[in-house]
Write a structure and sequence with these properties.
Layout (H helix, E strand, L loop, with lengths): L8 E3 L6 E3 L18 H18 L14 E3 L6 E3 L18 H17 L3 H10 L14 E4 L6 E5 L1 H9 L4 H11 L7 E4 L2 E3 L3
Antiparallel strand pairs: 1-2, 3-4, 5-6, 7-8
């Protein structure tokens, strides 16, 4: 084993270079307290064996990507993005989430659709296509919000924001909606007060 004359350096058994002591990980079983191979060689050796194990199991192997400082690779979308595009995660080794903000948002919408309506994005898109891409009620604005019956959970269609909000204001009451339609059409009527707090509706 080659030993360097520099007390602040060590010869790597892998790459055969004389490197600073900081380039070697600790190993209490060694006389000098350091591993015989530098961190870079150990990482390369581990990656090679990891690749062989994955290939032996018939699984894909992630290719190593050079990422500049202050950036991180998102394994979901495959893009290298600055740290500002990631949520914080104190439990992660780098303090960042495993997915970028954009991918987390997409997956959040997918979970919301499945959890609240039992739909996948493909099923939601097919429903919108069957409506011609427009709101079921106004037939003009783009369909964007899934509407469902709050009692049965049945999906009724996809509405625009305004029509979806209007149904919510009417509390899904068909009688109130019909009276609103009659009112808009000019067939206004008023209930007759027959007792304190008691009204008689016109027939």
């Amino acid at each position: 084993m080659r030993v360097t004359d520099d007390p602040n350096a060590k010869h790597c058994a892998g790459c055969r270079r004389d490197l600073p002591l900081e380039a070697f990980a600790n190993d209490r079983n060694r006389r000098d307290g350091l591993q015989p191979r530098c961190r870079e060689c150990v990482a390369e050796y581990s990656a090679t064996h990891y690749r062989r194990r994955r290939e032996a199991m018939g699984k894909s192997v992630r290719e190593k990507v050079d990422v500049p400082a202050g950036h991180k690779l998102c394994r979901t979308c495959g893009e290298v993005k600055p740290h500002g595009e990631w949520h914080r995660n104190a439990t992660a080794s780098d303090g960042l989430s495993t997915r970028c903000k954009a991918c987390r948002a997409v997956q959040g919408r997918q979970r919301h659709l499945k959890r609240n309506y039992g739909l996948t994005e493909a099923e939601r898109d097919a429903l919108i296509a069957s409506q011609g891409g427009v709101c079921c009620i106004c037939l003009s604005a783009p369909a964007a919000h899934v509407d469902h019956c709050h009692e049965t959970g049945r999906v009724r269609g996809v509405l625009c924001f305004s029509c979806n909000a209007a149904l919510g204001q009417f509390k899904d009451r068909p009688d109130a909606i019909r009276r609103a339609a009659a009112y808009v059409e000019g067939n206004a009527w008023k209930p007759t007060l027959v007792a304190p707090g008691v009204y008689q509706l016109p027939s």
